[in-house]
Structures are given as C-alpha cells and as structure tokens.
Specification:
single chain; 164 residues; mainly alpha; Peroxidase, domain 1; two-stranded antiparallel sheet; heme binding
Length: 164
Amino acid sequence: MAASSSSLAVVVVAAAVALVAGGGAAVAQLCEEYYDCTCPDAYDIVRRVLIDAHRSDARIFASLIRLHFHDCFVQGCDASLLLDSVPGMPSEKTSPPNNNSARGFPVVDDVKAALEDACPGVVSCADILALAAEISVELVIFINFIYYYHGNFIIIINVLRVTL
C-alpha cells in the first residue's frame, strides 16, 4: 500500500512539474498590435462596419458584446458560436438557449467579408468577435458622452478616438 501511494505521489509531482515547465513555453501574450503588419486596417474596417450596422440597428453594439460573451463562456473564445448546424450535429448558434436570442450574426458576416476583401485569410473569426466586442464597448461609451446641457445638446468629439 505504501509503495502504491508513493508511486502515485511521484506521478502527481511529475505531472505538476510537466505542467509548470510546459506551460511556460505555451503561454501566449495578447497584444493590440497583432495585426499591424498582416492586416493594418483591421481595426478601422471592423469599426466602419459596426458604425454602418448601428445606423439600422441601435442594439447591435450590445448584441455583439453578448455574442462574444456567449462564445467565450463554454470552452473559450473559439468562434464556435458562429458555426451553423449540419445534419446530425446541432450548433451553439441554434441551441435552445441561443436560438432567437443571440443576434448580430449578419454583422459578423459583414465584418468577415470586409476583412477578407482587405486581407484574405488573415483575421480569425474569434478575433473578429473580440474586436467587434471591444469596438462596441468604445462606441457605446462614446455615445453616452453626449450631454444635455442648459437646453442644448453638447457633443464631445474624439473621446476614445471615436468620431461618428
């Protein structure tokens, strides 16, 4: 019994050491400059499409933030929420919790099409959801910086690099 518990302890310690040693090599750092060389206009393209979408759908920013949340909620931010169902394999997009609830998919498709025109095969769908959510937050914050002051609307321009 003592031999098996010491063997188990050795295995556990070896696994922990392997995780720590191997984990350091596999750690990736996120950076805002990731697409600066491969698709330098990615941020501006996504931003432009979102602003255009907002003209016809005032809720789109909240919808895109929610899409990103639901994509990341289950097993990480992998854009699996964007996959369509196929016979015998239902998708997250049409699962009961998301069906007729998650929205904004056509805007994500528009962003993907615009990015593919500018830099084919470069920007991942997961990054599109992340960029769309980030830019949506910035645009919502900007819109909320419109003040009503002494009977006049005062519009603050260039808050968070945004000009509508």
